[in-house]
Specification:
It is a single chain. With 283 residues, the chain is of the alpha/beta class. It is 44% helix and 20% strand. It contains ten helices and ten strands. Strands 3-2-1-4-5-10-9-6-7-8 form a ten-stranded mixed β-sheet, sandwiched between helices. β6, α6 and β7 form a beta-alpha-beta unit. α8 runs parallel beside α10.
Length: 283
């Protein structure tokens, strides 16, 4: 897994996403792949109007529609080239020389899956062009991506500042221990101050596991602030982040089945929708 797969479009967040990829590339010493997809235009069916306007007139109109579609496609390709070239310059000016430009038709999720075997980290904005005016709304691809990707995902709200601290939520489950190991071994978070936070739950021996997690982080060289809280999970974590000016949130993905989340909600989704800072989702 060798690349920082960076998903960019024409939205205002594209430069922030690229900045995040630059930071990750330098931390992990991995090249950047800027990926832009051209989603197929959903053409409206012309229907058969020959009875009303005559076959000849309809044929001429369909020809005009075809020409407009071809022109639209050419403009989209040109805009894609300009976007990728601009962001490539941003990457190179930041001192990262290994950057790949990828332009393809289709869905961004399909593009990411195609690069699955060569992905170290995925960087993507929380919402793209379709939701640029509603920053609390998740882009349509995010949940699908989280459920199906095997690589960590860095998800940005609307801007990126180089983080100096991160918060990792620990609940005592096996998935939390796996996430903790990724934090320690991954390299992306080395050198950042760690806020290890646990919310009281029904897990047996949670406090003992929490102490062990704190000890493990300190043993591996992390500067750790450990805090044990009570209350609603997502609200407590978001409040703690704000009160302590934490720059980055680290979470394990979906702890429950999709069916259960439909009824009780997902803390992962709540955090993504409401966090004012970037979130790293570990798999």
């Amino acid at each position: 897994m060798n690349k920082i797969i960076t998903c960019v479009d024409g939205s205002a967040i594209a430069h922030a996403v690229t900045d995040a990829a630059i930071w990750a590339s330098k931390k992990l010493n991995k090249p950047i792949s800027l990926v832009h997809t051209l989603e197929k235009h959903r053409e409206q069916k012309a229907g058969d109007y020959t009875g009303a306007i005559g076959f000849g007139a309809q044929s001429l109109l369909l020809d005009e529609m075809t020409q407009l579609d071809e022109q639209r496609a050419k403009i989209s390709l040109k805009l894609a080239d300009e976007l990728l070239n601009s962001l490539s310059e941003q990457v190179k000016n930041a001192g990262v020389n290994h950057v790949e430009l990828v332009k393809r038709h289709g869905d961004i999720y399909d593009a990411i899956i195609d690069y699955k075997a060569d992905t170290r980290l995925i960087v993507i904005g929380r919402c793209g062009m379709d939701h640029s005016q509603s920053m609390s709304t998740l882009g349509s691809h995010i949940e699908t991506l989280i459920r199906n990707s095997t690589a960590p995902i860095l998800i940005l709200p609307d801007e990126f500042n180089t983080p100096k601290s991160f918060m990792v939520a620990y609940d005592g489950r096996d998935t939390a221990d796996k996430a903790l190991k990724q934090v320690i071994d991954g390299g992306l978070l080395q050198g950042l101050h760690c806020h290890l936070v646990s919310i009281k739950n029904n897990q047996p021996d949670l406090k003992e596991k929490f102490k062990n997690a704190q000890h493990m982080l300190k043993t591996k060289g992390f500067d750790v602030t450990a805090t044990f809280l009570e209350g609603d999970i997502s609200n407590s974590l978001l409040q703690y982040r704000e009160q302590n000016n934490v720059d980055l949130i680290v979470m394990g993905a979906f702890a429950h089945s999709k069916l259960r989340q439909f009824f009780v909600g997902s803390n992962t989704i709540k955090m993504l929708e409401n966090a004012a800072v970037p979130v790293v989702v570990l798999k």
